[in-house]
Amino acid sequence: MEEFLNASRIASSQLTSYKTIRVILGNPTCDLDSAICTLVQGLLEYTDVKKQQLANVAVIPVMNIPEKEFCVKTEVIYSLKSHGIPLSLLTFRDQISLQNVHSNCNKKLELILVDHHTLSNEDIALKSLVVTIIDHRPLDPTWLWPNNVLLNVETVGSCATLVARNVLQNNPDILDAQISSLLRGPILIDTYNMSDEAGRATATDVAILNTLEQLGGLTSDRTETFEKLMHAKTDINELTLEQLMIKDLKVTNGIPLVGFPLLVENFLMRENAEEVVEKFANERNCNVVVLIGQHVMKDRVSRDIVIYSTLCNQLANDIIQALAESIQPFFNLELIKKIEKEKFTLCLYRQGNVKWNAIPIPSLAIGMSHPSALSRIIYRKVLFSPDVAVTVEGNVATTGHPSLARMSQRYVGSKCIVKTVHNCFSIL
Asked: How far does the signal peptide extend, from start to end residue (predicted)?
């Protein structure tokens, strides 16, 4: 791995020497699964390029966050250091301009997306450059990829499972103790140590994990490894409240989803926490922020959800309504507390069904120039959730979910015709 990362750093500083730049891009959260998948898939690509003696191809794994934010990824830092990987060899998103590489007519940019399959608004111009996608989330039906994009998408507990299988099928020789152990970590974290209660592990995860342990000669206890990683993930003593807000940040349809390695209820007990959330929303010009907390003790998982919203916010009301009406079989949510301030409201829910780790986020893709412009409601899918179908035509919406129908009717213009079928919630 170190040889590959050294080569990638040299390549990133000498891009003019290459005709093809192959970038492996993780998701914008840069969590353990994303980071490890980016590096290992990059290593697989690098060994393939070397084998074919393609001297004009550079392979660069990119952590999809600015370097200054990496300090909050405590479990990633722990994992890399414990495997002897120098952090100085990593390449971050603000250290390479993909747009500039793309605009260089003499360069061919190839993108391999791991642990995600949609692009942010800032990266939408790069869509035509994507050659491969590896993701463990169900495909977002609003993102249609052309047939020439290789899709390795399967609903499993961890993207590392898919990357490991990819390595096993194409170059198992690189699965030494270091690489096998690196991949083992996110599989254990994402499946909560293969916990039956969490319900995240699939037969594929089990089989791949067993194979990694066998090939890598991994003898350390799974529970011990899991607990060390979880300790690193939840070790937030050195982080400020502001840093906690971006430690596990996702943005879905313009709505920030802020994940915490502790219950949100406990986060809000900290001094100035409510003000930090308000400032976070104001800086991003957001009227709604979803806060998701979890606490893991051995193989037991607790979760809670907080909806922050400015006053008189209809979108927040719709999300809250969807949550309330999704008690069974999705979340089993209980409203614990409602905090009302002068400029915002916080609604705290305890999640009884911990097997469901997603929240309904309506996407209002409403054309701003005309009231009859195309509108749609999107529910992004959690792993293992049932499909949700929505069909909207004019002002009529039919769906298996009552709140979706009302939201569809509310946001669709009188002349608008929308027909969508979605099987997705947003992964948290």
From this structure: none
Task: With CA atoms as reference, report the closest residue to 130 among 68, 116, 419, 138.
Answer: 116
C-alpha Rg value of the chain to the nearest Å: 22
Cis peptide before 329 (omega within 30 of 0): yes
What is d(CA 259, CA 253) in angstroms, rounded to the nearest whole number?
A: 16
Q: What residue has token string 């929240």?
A: 359
Task: Dihedral sign for Cα 389, 306, 259, 209, please.
Answer: negative
List of residues 6+ apart from 68 with CB closer than 8 A = none
Query: Are 31 and 248 within 8 A, CB to CB?
Result: yes
Separation between Cα atoms, residue 77 and residue 67, nearest integer Å:
12
Name the region of 58 (left: φ>0; alpha: ψ -120 to 50; beta: rest). beta
pLDDT tens-digit profile of 185-242? 999 999 999 988 778 899 999 999 999 999 999 999 999 999 999 999 999 989 999 9
> Alpha-carbon distance 287 to 301, whole Å?
30
Is 19:54 a contact under the CB 8 Å cutoff?
A: no
β-partners of residue 130 are 111
Write out the two tokens for 51.
């084998």
Per the CB < 8 A criterion, the answer to whether 277 and 291 are in contact is yes
Instruction: For 275-300, write each residue's pLDDT tens digit.
Output: 999 999 999 998 999 999 988 776 67
Residues in the chain: 428
From 165-169, 238-242, 348-352, 416-420, the region with the lowest mean pLDDT: 416-420
Q: Are 117 and 133 in contact (CB under 8 A)?
A: yes
Distance, CA of 134 to chain centre: 12
The answer to whether 101 touches 93, Cβ cutoff 8 Å, is no
Q: Are 25 and 39 in contact (CB under 8 A)?
A: no
CA distance 12 to 39: 15
The mean-pLDDT minimum among 17-21, 125-129, 169-173, 424-428 falls in 424-428
pTM of the model: 0.79
Q: How far apart are CA 418 and CA 413, in angstroms?
A: 10
Does residue 315 contact residue 335 with C-beta atoms inside 8 Å?
A: no
CA–CA distance, 75 with 416 (Å, rounded to integer): 47
